[in-house]
Amino acid sequence: MTTFHQISRQNLECPICLTLFNHPRSLTCSHIFCTNCLQRIFQAQPVEQAIKCPICRKETPLPGGDVSKLQTNVPLSSMVDEVKTRSPTCTVCEMNEKSPAVSYCQDCGKYLCKLCETSHSTWKPFSNHEKVDMTEVLSGKVSLKRRCKCKKHPNDDEECFCTGCREYVCLRCGMLGHLQAGHQIEEAAIHEEKLMKNIKELQESVKSKKTTLENYIDFIETQRKEITNMLSKLIDDIGKTYDEYMQLLSASREALECQVQRWSEKFEKKLQVMEEESRQTVRNMNAMEELVSTGVKVPLEKDALFANNTLCENLKSFLGREV
């Protein structure tokens, strides 16, 4: 009989990371995944307001891209916690009281206690089987390779794969049901080998694409640095050109100021001469006016009359000059 622990571990694993659910959350389609797995799915898709289920491809609204707002599957979390606290028991022993498992055979798909592990190692057909320690299994470092049991034939492993139904089946179901329905059946190992090949090809494509993008990013960074250096040099050149023109303008300003200063001094001298000449003219006019004004004081006779007439003529002549 299958123990509660084995049933739980087979049904409590995330279909993405293949480990026990870690903070399981449900989508609207009822499929359940780890919170971190859903976050990675959301980050890798172009849709910004919804998350697409990787199983049925139905979209679940996700405003703001916050996966933590999805409904937490509390019963499933409780079952996972209970499974983590239990130690697996041997699935080979036929005794009622099962012994604790110390290892797991990846080829047989069985948990082994210490005694069964020793017997398993001594059997020649099983000598090359891959066994992993239970501490690595419980810590999550190693994923278990195991075949599920057929629901119709509980004693048979699902060792075949129906490409039409996209599901694993046991040999009897494959022969009696799927082949008669016209479906194509292949060994599970062959299907998994094809799947691994496809995954490796995708990984190589991702690696090549990443290399191309990284080279493109390096090119962009190089261009950014060159543009930054060019702009920095351009700013320096502008500053130097500005300083040179400012020096030239400063020199031109000094030359113009000197020239204006010389013109100012020259004009000042001329204006001083003109002012002095005008003042001298005013003084001369005053003197001639005084000389002529004696003629209004008393009647003039003989020489005085001739002298006054001469002075008046000189004053008229003087007044006729252009200033």
Bin the helical content: 40-55%
Strand ordering within the main sheet: 2-1-5
Number of strands: 11
- Summed over residues and divided by their number, the pLDDT gives a mean of 83
Structural class: mainly alpha
Shape descriptor: rod-shaped
H-E order = HEEHEEEHEEHEHEEHEHH
What percentage of amino acids are in beta strands? 5-15%
Uncertain runs are 1-7
Task: Quote the distance from N terminus to C terminus.
Answer: 141 Å
Radius of gyration over C-alpha positions, nearest whole angstrom: 56 Å
The biggest sheet, with number of strands, parallel, antiparallel or mixed sense and barrel status, is: 3 strands, antiparallel
Q: How large is the count of helical segments?
A: 8
